[in-house]
Target: Oxidoreductase
Amino acid sequence: MNIAILGCGTMGTAYAHNLAKMPGVTVTGVVDLNAERAEQAAALTGAKGYTDVDSLLEQKDLETVAVCLPTYLHKPFVLRLAEKGLHVICEKPAALTLEDAQEMKAACEKHGVRLFIGHVVRFFPNYQDAYRKAHSGHIGTPKMAHFKRYGSYPQGMDLWYNDPGKSGGVIMDLMIHDIDFACWLFGEVESVYASIVKRAEPEMEYAQLTLHFKNSSIASLTGYWGYPGPFTTQFEISGDQGIIRFDSNQVQSLDIKRVSAEAGDGAAVQVPASPSLHDPYYKEVLHFIECIRDGSEPLVSIKDACYAVQIAQAAEQSAQTGQPVTIGGTVS
Model:
């Protein structure tokens, strides 16, 4: 598989590290407007560095492109790559609006190429373990969940993160991870209610979402840009027979407490993170590449990615109006 990387910032560099050691994969080019960043990524992969996309697209043997650009640039470049007959692995979110994401999906289908969106949380062992436990009867039927995701305010990104018209803000950029996971866990959303608190000095953006699902489940999501501590993710999934908890700041990976049929039996089962040679980003990209090779369906589909954008958009609308937003229909 010959693949190129478009954008050599934080995520582009992560892709470069992983693709460089992936068997059967050759990085044939890396592109960034910043020549220094392009050269650094080129050094990691042994590929040629470019500062313009046109030069990269002259390569005759290119098959796939990893799009690691700012969110507002996803649509125009994905459309262009699709027209060139190239498969695309694009970082999340797919786009800033559902309409743009659907246009990307339609263009790739028209030109017969695959489009994958990097919702990497589905590839994190702790989240995968929790999903399997929640759907295998360990806690009965999952009914409620609470997800938290805290991190420092993005810095050094040419300030595009500071413009919600380019990044989508904390909901679209950060919380979309947990939106996607919650939808994977519970299914279709019936309504969303959201509120956001922003501060300029020091920079902070804090959001709370409540998702009501069509199966009567409820999920509460919290996202925080500007958190003064280490990057933190937490979740709690409650069923009618127990609860699953995870806190990235704890040593243990999962804590499952089950309701026992016998009084006084309150056993806790701890499930550690699976030992792994490669990080979740490696597993995610390798999975997408394997889907291209054998035509199989991915763990996270472009339909899933479009749906996550739809829910994030609805949450933004709710935060602006102060009213819950009903989700109509399903994403095709």
Summary: Residues 101 and 306 are 6 Å apart (CA to CA). The longest helix spans residues 302-321.
